[in-house]
């Protein structure tokens, strides 16, 4: 099983979860950079209104080819109860996502809002098969059981014989 973890992180929480999932699954990490280069204040003053409007950022990498992977994990911070503009753009930039198993996670100060539902809907519109989603608070990021819940969604379920 090959896994690709596509994520955006500004403060490091989403990066921490993505790295732990990669360690547990042997997955490859693709960090999406928002070319706006927000300062801490800029994330709130400029980025959050863009997130609320569902805008897409200019990102690097501009194209993300996931055709060689079995499962794709998408991770986003929560900005104004929504995925970041970088993740909106990343989902649009995915090539080869059709028919792929996907899992979504988000990190927030405590209120994920519509983030998980929004990313799941975007992936479904692209033809991906969403297996589930997990929301992490800042405290949850270090909890092994929370990361394990996400990893359990990533790993394929064994087929039982009857």
From TrEMBL:
Segments forming domain Flavodoxin-like: 3-162
Classification via InterPro entries: Flavodoxin/NO_synth, Flavodoxin_CS, Flavoprotein-like_sf
Protein name, per record: ArsR family transcriptional regulator
Organism: Methanoculleus frigidifontis
Source lineage: Archaea, Methanobacteriati, Methanobacteriota, Stenosarchaea group, Methanomicrobia
